[in-house]
Amino acid sequence: MKRRTPAHTKRLLARNLRRLRQQRSWSQHDLADEANVRQALVSALEVAKANPTLDSLDKIAVALNVGVADLLLP
């Protein structure tokens, strides 16, 4: 199994989060409201600049109706 670097994992999260949000025609603010997180966090995650907590990832996944693992898939 090939090991991922933290930077690679952040980029995967950024790509998947943006894609899933846009598929729903949601703004970052819409997602933040649905997930009960700050819009600044959504923005930082989408440019791979934040290290989210498991709690934040779970809230975002629930809002998007996906599993946490789906946010990290290649």
UniProtKB/TrEMBL annotation:
InterPro entries: Cro/C1-type_HTH, Lambda_DNA-bd_dom_sf, TransReg_Diox_bact_type. Residues 17-71 form the HTH cro/C1-type domain. The keyword 4Fe-4S does not apply. Gene3D superfamilies: lambda repressor-like DNA-binding domains. This is Helix-turn-helix transcriptional regulator. It comes from Bradyrhizobium denitrificans. Keywords: DNA-binding.
